[in-house]
Automatic annotation (TrEMBL):
Gene Ontology biological process terms in this record: DNA-templated transcription initiation
NCBIfam families, alphabetized: sigma70-ECF (TIGR02937)
Domain RNA polymerase sigma factor 70 region 4 type: 127-178
Domain RNA polymerase sigma-70 region, chain residue ranges per copy: 22-83
Every DUF6596 domain range: 196-296
Organism of this sequence: Montanilutibacter psychrotolerans
Gene3D superfamilies cross-referenced by the UniProt entry: 1.10.1740.10, Winged helix-like DNA-binding domain superfamily/Winged helix DNA-binding domain (1.10.10.10)
Name of the protein: RNA polymerase sigma factor
Domain of life: Bacteria
GO molecular function, one term: sigma factor activity
Length: 437
């Protein structure tokens, strides 16, 4: 391998490490510094040092720990230089057994111990901070996805179905607003905790979705994001065990994650749901998901409330999980659940999924009528799954030429290379006069 190849390989490794570790890094630094911009800047500094040193020394055995140590040392230096150490000493002195000057060797451990609010999870802490009520819901979610989901502004924009510039402005304004409000970097309690919970749930949901079907790039999935979302969801359930929607979201993620091994060929090519080998679905995750769903629905009954969005989506996923083969799927129940979900959410994306469900329950003509009603929906303009669904239904109705146009349109709109290849292959099948699978 040439030096250029080695250099390129190391840079790819750094990119991968950064994608995984940056949320944890920023969260930890923000807890220390109480400043999001400073935390991001120091995290970036650690990345620059890695880019300079690792091509010479090699990638460390634990690159995440290396980045964390480097960034935290610089954070401590910054605190010392800015003379914030004394103020922190005064704030925390009553919690220390001995009143003495901070020793360099003890500084980091003392900060960690004193800033711990009992939650023990920096990512979750920063997520609640980013969901502060001084921010709009859109700003809360965009900021948290950027800081903790590891998503680019482009990826967040596609998740929201809005222009990238809009998301960039939201993030800048959100950080400025938090700084001006001097928002405390802690998990809120009581009523304020409840008020922020819906935004936190939505963030976890969107992070998982981005991992389940990557917006852009060469990979069909980004399992690391799904793992982060699942971990945060499980922690959250432990914090609010009587919240049905938290359990419903975890149930949904467990059931969706159970399909990971069956969703791609060894080559990385995607396998659609109805074509998957269900023997490869993870039965342990399915069991966990069904149990979480049962507990969520039981909570709804005990509390005398209707099922929320995440509980309903988990119930839909459970219908797939309970079917040993695709032909056994209870599409009528799924379509009915989508009716309930659509009435609750009013989301055009849910309406599109509802169209697909009714196509399976009542035939492609019924589904196409529902999908056609969404063609002029502003939020779905440029959303590749609308022409994908229409192409699929047109093909099933034998309208092959129209289906080809829709698949080509969808291929031009997606940013995921694997998905584009799949859509182009379906368009090519239509051009050959065949009904694509």
């Amino acid at each position: 391998m040439t030096s250029a190849d080695t250099h390129s390989k190391i840079h790819r490794a750094i990119d991968a490490v950064w994608r995984i570790e940056s949320p944890r890094l920023i969260a930890s630094l923000a807890r220390m510094l109480r400043n999001i911009d400073a935390a991001e800047e120091l995290a970036q500094d650690a990345l620059v040092i890695a880019l300079e040193q690792w091509p010479l020394t090699g990638v460390p055995d634990n690159p995440g720990a290396w980045l964390m140590t480097t960034a935290r040392r610089r954070a401590i230096d910054q605190l010392r230089r800015s003379k914030l150490i004394q103020s922190k000493h005064e704030q925390l002195g009553h919690e220390l057994e001995q009143q003495q000057a901070w020793r360099d060797a003890d500084l980091e451990a003392a900060l960690d111990a004193s800033l711990d609010d009992g939650i023990g999870d920096d990512l979750l802490r920063l997520m609640f901070v980013a969901c502060h009520p001084v921010l709009s819901e859109e700003a809360r979610i965009a900021l948290t996805l950027r800081l903790l989901g590891g998503l680019s502004t482009d990826e967040i924009a596609r998740a929201f179905l809005v222009p990238e510039a809009t998301i960039a402005q939201r993030i800048v304004r959100a950080k400025r607003t938090l700084a001006q409000a001097q928002a405390p970097f802690e998990v809120p309690r009581g009523a304020e905790f409840d008020a922020r919970l819906a935004s936190v749930l939505k963030v976890i949901y969107l992070v998982f979705n981005e991992g389940y079907l990557a917006t852009a790039g060469d990979d069909w999935m980004r399992p690391g994001l799904c793992e982060d979302a699942l971990r945060l969801g499980r922690v959250l359930v432990g914090m609010v065990p009587r919240e049905p929607e938290a359990r419903g979201l975890v149930a949904l993620m467990e059931l969706q994650a159970s399909r990971f091994d069956a969703r791609t060929e060894p080559s990385g090519q995607p396998i659609l749901l109805l074509d998957q080998d269900r023997g490869r679905w993870d039965r342990l995750l399915i069991g966990r998901g069904l149990t979480a769903l049962e507990r969520a629905e039981t909570l709804c009954q005990r509390l005398g409330i209707g099922r929320g969005s995440y509980v309903l989506q988990a119930a839909i996923a459970a219908c797939h999980a309970r079917a040993a083969v695709a032909a056994d799927t209870d599409w009528s129940r799924i379509a009915t659940l989508y009716d309930e979900l659509s009435e609750l959410s009013g989301s055009p994306v849910v309406e599109l999924n509802r169209a697909l469900a009714w196509s399976m329950a009542a035939g492609p003509a019924a589904g196409l009528a529902l999908a056609d009603a969404l063609v002029d929906e502003p939020a779905l303009q440029g959303y590749h799954l609308l022409p994908t669904v229409r192409g699929d239904l047109l093909a099933k109705l034998g309208r092959i030429d129209e289906a080809r146009i829709e698949f080509e349109r969808a291929a031009g709109q997606t940013r995921n290379e694997r998905e584009r290849d799949l859509l182009l292959a379906r368009a090519a099948a239509c051009a050959d006069g065949a009904i694509p699978g």
